[in-house]
Write the structure tokens for this entry.
Amino acid sequence: MFQGNLSNVTQERNKIMNDIPIINVTGSYAPEVFERLCLEVWSKGARIKTEYGGSSLDVTAMVTIKEPTTNPRLHKNLCVGYKDLEVYKTSILEGIDDYQVEAGVYTYTYSRRLTKFHGKINQIEAMIDKLVEAPFSRRAQAITWDPTLDIQEPSPPCLQRIWCRLTPANDRPENGMVLNMNVSWRSRDLWKAFLVNIYGLTSLMECIAQDLSVKLEIPVVCGRYVEFIDSLHIYEADWNVEEIKKMQSTPWTYRAVKTTDREYVEEIELAKEDIELRKAKAKEFYRNLPVKDQEEVAKETLATELPKKRKPKIE
């Protein structure tokens, strides 16, 4: 956890500020962009109160990662272990925690909102079908916000929308296609959530590209990944001058992590047991449902199942 006193280095923020600052950060790799964002939010962010108590440094941001699925993809300041990161990715790709919505533990999961919206609409599959029909379409999108539930929800989804479009590789469709992804967020914890979310969603991007490649029968590769973030912030509890100084004085590559690094690969193996346990719990939950509910779940599964999951290539 960051520690430090913001007022020592950001006295200018005590001045009256009418507008939330806007930043635009572009880089080739996720950990590179992460550090640039930290420095931008630290130096330019407005100090704003939060609904959780305390305050945060806040900006509105546009973020571009040119090589979102190329190593290095991770950072040493990741606020979860690599095992937990692998479980999180699997929860997005395979919906291993979706049953907890029906169990009343969660009000939503991203997987359930994206692939079983209102219990029946697979928006990811619909995006893929639309792009197969018309690669240049501007209509291939998926949303998470459900106003019937989220307006009064104390912890509504931060992720709001995913939009995809295909462009010809080198302007020649016969050379294959490039998948471009835009993602919209209403709220984003830069320090604790940004890198985890990026890894999960760019892994989903890889799966979408693979399925498009199969259906179109041409190569489809991942292109740039762009985010629009209404509130990108660092919470007061996470402020630390020393960590910022490291980012200012040394290259980001010192803290970058590849998914081929030994410590990460070892953690993936440890994650497999946790993932299988969650899958078993989901099966047990559905097995214990009343017969009528089991039939409804079966219908939903047939109608909304994601395309065959493929593990993203480790580079």
About this structure: The two ends are 30 Å apart (CA to CA). The chain has one domain: 18-304. The longest strand covers residues 220-235.
